[in-house]
Specification:
Length: about 300
């Protein structure tokens, strides 16, 4: 059973401040799902090539605008999602952005083909991609720029140095990391302040517990991608479904509510192409779980998985 850093007996707070100056509601939106690719619709999100813009562009624009109407303060994207077209879509839908809206993007992964995600942390490449993201998002400064993956072929000091230079030039407000271990996070912090970590984490995938607890202790936001558990945990009649029935919520809302209780540093960024699912996910902020229900969910433990790492 996980030992929580936050007391689970009361409803968790609904706002988190990233980097000391970016307050956001504690459920954001991950825009990766607003992409497509060659071939049939994938069975699960991690199988999506994230290669083309969405087939129904107007529906995607409607969803993004609805997200902001519902109070979403943080939208996450990356330069590699549909080769930059995901950033362009966000700008088309939402620019000029409301003052409260934080658009976070990621750089540091090249896409030679629909099936390839290649870490590329050469400083000149990172600076080029940041400049392209600024253009596509139509902003002069990116509020939160995250290194999409650490490149093992490039010294960490050089990778973060490129982002720090952009920060010094006023083109980046805060720097974050994605899919890192605790050791890597500590090493990065020794080089430059880190405002956020975006790792895969949910009820069934919990190998970043140490990162979450460290983030909470050091004022770092933790943005779990794929935050809604799949597999046996989400099956009809399973533990999540049982708790959801007791709480008057859906299983997806229950999984998100558990994350909000797991740590005060967590801001889930569930993605969807459905307005109905978007509204369902955001309503998880109002779901109340008892300490006993949270304990039951926490005791489920992680599931073994052979799914490929999500982008």
């Amino acid at each position: 059973m996980i030992e929580h850093t936050a007391q689970p007996s009361t409803r968790p707070g609904t706002v988190l401040t990233i980097g000391g100056d970016l307050p956001v509601r504690r459920i954001g939106y991950g825009a990766m799902r607003l992409t497509g690719g060659p071939g049939p619709v994938p069975a699960t999100p991690d199988q999506a090539p994230v290669w083309w813009p969405p087939a129904d562009r107007q529906a995607a624009i409607t969803l993004l605008r609805r997200a902001v109407e519902l109070g979403v303060d943080l939208i996450d994207t990356a330069d590699s999602y549909a080769l930059g077209a995901n950033e362009e879509l966000i700008a088309e839908a939402l620019h000029p952005y409301p003052d409260h809206l934080v658009i976070t993007t990621k750089i540091g992964v090249a896409r030679p083909s629909p099936s390839e995600w290649v870490p590329l942390g050469r400083p000149e490449y990172l600076r080029q991609q940041a400049e392209l993201s600024l253009r596509r998002l139509r902003v002069e400064r990116i509020d939160l720029l995250q290194l999409h993956r650490l490149d093992p072929q490039v010294p960490l000091e050089d990778q973060l140095g490129a982002l720090r230079r952009l920060q010094d030039e006023g083109k980046v407000r805060h720097i974050g990391l994605s899919e890192v271990t605790l050791e890597q996070l500590r090493a990065a912090q020794a080089i430059t302040p880190i405002a956020s970590v975006e790792n895969m984490y949910n009820l069934a995938t919990r190998h970043h517990d140490d990162v979450i607890d460290y983030a909470a202790a050091h004022g770092i936001a933790f943005l779990p991608f794929f935050p809604i558990a799949m597999g046996a945990h989400a099956a009809p009649g399973g533990a999540v479904a049982d708790v959801a029935l007791e709480a008057g919520a859906t299983p997806a809302q229950t999984a998100l509510a558990w994350l909000l209780h797991r740590s005060p540093a967590i801001v889930p960024i569930p993605g969807t192409a459905s307005v109905a699912h978007l509204e369902e996910n955001l309503a998880a902020l109002a779901v109340e779980l008892s300490a006993e229900q949270i304990g039951r969910l926490s005791a489920l433990g992680a599931e073994p998985s052979d799914r490929p790492e999500a982008p």
